[in-house]
């Protein structure tokens, strides 16, 4: 990806998020119109720019992106995506049934709740990967696509009938 495209995406994304941060600061905690519209675009441009930048093998960025905890999170991210909602619904149901607590918790309870959800989601995703996904991924070697042999310029293409 050309650096000018990456720079443009990063600059436009930063401008959008900066605009929201300066003129509509409450949007970061109580998302409303701006974060649901242009804010999503801003974060998408920043994320896309970071992905594009990572392909240029910049040493400092490479060191950050190669951190073990980031690599592990990436390895289990699909499982985290799949399992976070069922886990949240089960725990939310449990808290309401047993303790009568709603989803809106005071900060003193919200922080341990979030930490527990993150740790639980990560653990379930890791177990799922180790027990199921890795075994399914090992089958990939049996389903490699066979590419046709490349033609030289001198060989004519098959006639279209």
What descriptive keywords fit this protein?
single chain; 161 residues; mainly alpha; 6 helices
Specify the overall morphology.
Answer: flat
Give the CA-CA distance, first to last residue.
39 Å
**Number of DSSP strands?**
0
Characterize the main sheet: none
In DSSP terms (H or I, runs of 4 or more residues), the helix count works out at 6
Overall pLDDT: 85
Give the DSSP E fraction (strand runs of 2 or more residues): under 5%
How are helices and strands ordered from N to C?
HHHHHH
The assigned structural class equals mainly alpha
| Poorly predicted residue ranges | none
State the share of residues found in helices, binned by percent: 55-70%
Which radius of gyration do the C-alpha atoms yield?
23 Å
What does this structure look like?
The chain is mainly alpha-helical and 161 residues long. Helices cover 70% and strands 0% of the residues. The protein contains 6 helices and no strands. The chain is flat and about 75 Å long. It starts with a helix and ends in a 24-residue tail after the last helix.
Q: Care to give the gist of this entry?
A:
The chain has helices spanning 3-23, 33-54, 59-65, 68-75, 77-99, 107-137.
Protein topology:
Blueprint: H1 3-23, H2 33-54, H3 59-65, H4 68-75, H5 77-99, H6 107-137
Helix pairs in contact: 1-2, 5-6
């Amino acid at each position: 990806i050309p650096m000018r495209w990456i720079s443009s995406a990063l600059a436009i994304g930063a401008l959008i998020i900066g605009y929201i941060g300066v003129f509509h600061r409450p949007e970061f905690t109580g998302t409303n119109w701006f974060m649901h519209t242009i804010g999503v675009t801003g974060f998408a441009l920043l994320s896309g720019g970071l992905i594009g930048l990572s392909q240029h093998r910049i040493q400092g960025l490479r060191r950050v992106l190669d951190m073990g905890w980031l690599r592990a999170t990436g390895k289990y991210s699909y499982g985290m995506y799949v399992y976070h909602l069922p886990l949240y619904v089960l725990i939310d149901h449990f808290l309401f049934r047993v303790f009568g607590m709603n989803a809106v918790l005071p900060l003193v309870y919200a922080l341990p709740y979030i930490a527990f959800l993150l740790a639980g989601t990560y653990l379930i995703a890791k177990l799922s990967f180790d027990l199921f996904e890795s075994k399914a991924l090992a089958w990939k070697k049996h389903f490699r696509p066979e590419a046709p042999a490349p033609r030289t310029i001198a060989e004519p293409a098959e006639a279209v009938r």
